[in-house]
Amino acid sequence: MTANTQAAQPTPPSRKRNSLSKGKLPRWAVPATAAGAIIVGAAFSTLTGFSVATFAIYSAVLFVIAGTVLTSVVEGRRQGRNAMWTYLIYGAFLLALIPLASVLYTVLEKGLPGMNSHFLFSSMNGVTGAVDNQSVADGAPVIGGAYHALLGTLMITLWATVISVPVGMLTAVYLVEYGKNGVLAKAITFFVDVMTGIPSIVAGLFAAAFFGLLLGPNARMGIVAAVALSVLMIPTVVRSTEEMLKIVPNELREASYALGVRRWRTILKVVIPTAISGIASGVTLAIARVIGETAPILVTAGIASSINTNVFANWMSTLPTFIYYQILTPTSPTNIDPSVQRAWAAALLLILMVMALNLGARLIASLFAPKKGR
Are residues 100 and 241 in the same domain? Predict the structure, then answer.
C-alpha cells in the first residue's frame, strides 16, 4: 500500500528557463572581453596607420559589440541591452573625462617648472627683454613673477563679491518672499535670465562706458573691473539664492508667524539661516565663474607690470590678463621661453584657485547644512 502511494505521487514539473532566469557571466568575462578588444583594436589600428585616437575608437567599439553579444547569449537579450547601455554610459563619461585630464596634465607639466617662490612673490616691474635674454644665455632661473597679478585678481574679485552678493541676495529675497507672481517680480526674473546670457565683453564695455561718463574716457581702474564682474555675478547669485530660499519648508515660516514674529525678522532669523548652506556655496561658485574672465578686465582695468593695491586709481593686472599679455607680447621677442613659462605657471595658479573655490563651496555646504535630528 505504501509502495503504491509513493508510486502514485506526481513528479514536480520542471521549470523552463526563460530570458529572465538564464545564466550569469563570470567575473572575469568583462576584463577578458576588454583585453581582447584592446588587442584586436591595436591590430586594426596598426593595419590602418597606428594612432592613439584610432586605437581607442576601435577598442571601444569592439568592446561594446563583444560585451553586448556575449551578455545576450549567456544572460538573455534584456540583459544584453542593459549591458550595451551601461558600456555606452561609461564610455561617454570617460570621453568627457579625457579632455579635462589632458588639460590638467598639460598645465601641470608646463606650469610646475615655473612655479616657485620668486614667481609667487615678485612682479614684472623692471623685467625687460634684456633680462630674459641674459637669463636664457646663463641658464639661470626666470626672473619676474605674477605677484601683482595675483593681488589684482584677489582685490578685484573681492570688490565684485562685495557689490554683487548683497544685491543678488536681496533681489532673491524679494522674488521669493514678497514678489511672488507679481508683475515686478516677473519683470525682474526676465531681466535676470537675460543677464545670465550676456557675454562678458559686453559687461566690460558697459562698466567702461558708465565710468567713462563719470570720470572721463580713460577711466581704467580696479573698481571698474569689479563692477563689470559684478554684472556677471549678480544673475548667478540671484538664481542660486532664489532656489535655496524656495526649498525652505513653509511650515518654518508659518511657525514663526504663529509666534508673532514679523516677516522681515522671520526671513532674517529663520529662512536665511536654513538656506545659508546653499547660498554660500552658490556665491562661491559665482566667484569661481568670474575669477578667470579676461575680456572685461582688459577694457576696464588694463594691464600693469607693477604692484597696485588701490582699486580706485591706476591700472591693475589679473592672472588672466597676465597670461594673455605674456603670450601675446613676450618680454623678449627673440627668447619667448621665459614669457611662456610665466604664462603656464600663472595658468596653473589660476586653476588651483578655481579648484580651491570649488572645494571651499563643498566645505561650506557641509559646514552650514542644517543639523539632522535623530
Answer: no
